[in-house]
Amino acid sequence: xxxxxxxxxxxxxxxxxxxxxxxxxxxxxxxxxxxxxxx
Length: 39
Fold this sequence. Notes:
There is one protein chain. This protein is mainly α. The protein has helices spanning 10-20, 30-38. Residues 8-39 form the EF-hand domain.
């Protein structure tokens, strides 16, 4: 995100991952990532 000009805090990044991680496994897989980007 920094290369896109967005300086995010660690908390903001954690929130983004939690929102995208629909399976609850602590990781964002391709499908979750694609869904997050498309919205």
